[in-house]
Structure formats: C-alpha cells, structure tokens
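Lecture notes, unit on binding sites. The following record was shown on slide 14. It pairs a sequence with 3,4-dihydroxyphenylalanine.
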Amino acid sequence: MDKIAEIRQRCMQALAECEKVSLLQELKVRFLGKVGEVTSLLKSIKDLPQEERPSFGAKVNQLRNLLEDAFAQRQQTLSETEIKNKLQKEKVDVSLTAVSPWGALHPVTLIENKISSLLVSMGFEVIAGPEIETDYYNFQALNIPQDHPARDMQDTFYITDSILLRTQTSAMQARLMEKKQPPIKMICPGKVFRSDSDSSHSPVFHQIEGLVVDENITLCDLKGTLEYLAKNLFGKETKVRFRPSYFPFTEPSVEVDLTCSNCGGKGCSLCKGTGWIEVLGAGMVNPAVLENCGIDSEKYTGYAFGWGMDRIAMIKYGIPDIRLFYENDQRFLKQFE
Ligand code: DAH
C-alpha cells in the first residue's frame, strides 16, 4: 500500500513538472505502459497472501484510473498552451504593408495593361478567347479558306487537321460577331502561337485585337483611335502613317507605322534609318467576313487592328531580342519592378 502511495506521489509530481506534450508520452509509458510501474504493481498481486489480493487489486486499479485521468488532463492543458504560444509566435500582422515587393509585372503585361486601359477608356469592351482554336475561326471565317496562300504568312501549329493553336487573336472577331450584332467595340488581348524562332520571333507571343462595327465607321475612325494610342504610348509628337497592305479579312488593308520613338523620325539604327517603325496590321473589315458572321454588310462597316504586344514592349524598353521575354531571367525581369 505504501508503494501505491509512493508511485502516485511521484507520478503526480512528474506530471506537474512536465512542460511538453512530447515528453508526456514517455512519462506515460514509464508509469502506465506494458512494463510500466503501475502495471508491475498489478503483476505483483500474485506474491501477496490470498486475502489481501482483492483490496490491493482494487487500489491499484483506482490508481491507474486516477493517473490516466491526470495524464489526459495534463495533455490537454499542455497542448492548448503549445498552440497558444505557437499562434503568438507566428502571428502575422496583415495590416502591415510588405517591406519589399515580392514580384513585378512582366514587361509585356505592362504594355498590354497600358494599351488595354487606354482602349477601355475609349469605350472598348475586353474579351478573352481560347488559345486552342478551330481552323474555322482562325482562318475560314476570316476569309482564309483551306489552301489559301495567305496561310503561308503564318506558320501554324496544328493539333489535328481542324484544330490548332491560334496564330492570331483575329480568331475572336468571328466568334464575337456570330453572337453579337453591332454596335461592337471590343478588344481581345492574348497569347498567339507560330512555329518561328529568332531574335524577333518567338513561338509564343502576344497580340491585342481590336474590332469596331457599327453604322458609318470609316478608316478615319481607325486612324484617330491609333493616333490617340500612339501619342499616349510614345509621346505627343508621334505620328501615324498608313501604308497599303493585304490581309484577307480587311479591305482595304494597311500596315501602320509610327515615327521612331528613339530618334523622333530622323533615322537611327532602331528604325534602320527610315524614321518609321512598323507596329501593326489593320483595315476595314472585309464585307465577306461580316456576312460569314451574319452581319448585314450593306448596313454596317467596321475596322479592325492587331498589335503585337511583344514588339511594342521591345521598342518601348529598348529590348534587342524577343527571347529575353521568355527566359525568365530574374536579372532581366527585375529591371521592370
Ligand atoms: N491578324 C494579323 C496578324 O496576326 C494582324 C491583323 C491585321 C489583325 C489586320 C487585324 C487586321 O484585325 O485588321 O498578322
């Protein structure tokens, strides 16, 4: 009986002194485990005289129950304190501003955001479309049938005969016009893909498509819009020039040049001495495209344009090689923080 009291006393003291949940388990094994002190007491019953066994057994069981409760209680107190301490220690004050920024926008994203927000301020709606596209929307609906030589202008990644990685955001023109009657005033920024790679071509690059269809839309509306964009992007003195060109989905079609932002039009290495830099393709939406999409080409006219964002970013930031945009070298990207 003395032994029972002694074990009880020792165990309760050890429990009170134990400050860690992880140490508690060891302690429990020592007292209540298979070869623990309390269990050994139970085993020692057989050495007692017959008449003492029942009351001794009852006492040991009492002790075991008492200690089990005490362990459970201590376990709870300790884990609550541990959690509380941990929360205290790892507390994050979300009201504090970060000491240093953890990232930056990619230069192409910066340009895309800038051009998009200028166009949004002019009332354009922003839409997005699929990067995996059908041959129909990427080509046929845009007046480029199978075997049309204009397909050679764009080296296409085909997935099947009729599914491809879109080569131009122009694909969204037809998708939108099929669903919506004029007035239409949309832009579609996004990734496009072509099998081409050198210092000015990347297999993936970025375009912004613009499309306006309504009554009485003319080439002057296109020129005014592009002039506004050019002046906001490259400075008030920037001039815009249209050169005749050819795209199957516009008639007439133009290539659009801006005065070189580097030399102001005098001629330098960036503009190869011409004073002008070609930045985008555009034109009046070909009536055939309007009709393909169920829009009355007698009543409505429209203009469209497609800009390469990467090219604008290269000009704006003086970047000589388009591949720098896709290598994700931190030393390059950090310059745009
Ligand atoms: N989709 C043409 C390209 O990627 C660019 C383009 C030209 C878009 C004329 C247009 C446009 O909307 O009207 O080369």
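Take-home: The chain has a mean pLDDT of 93.
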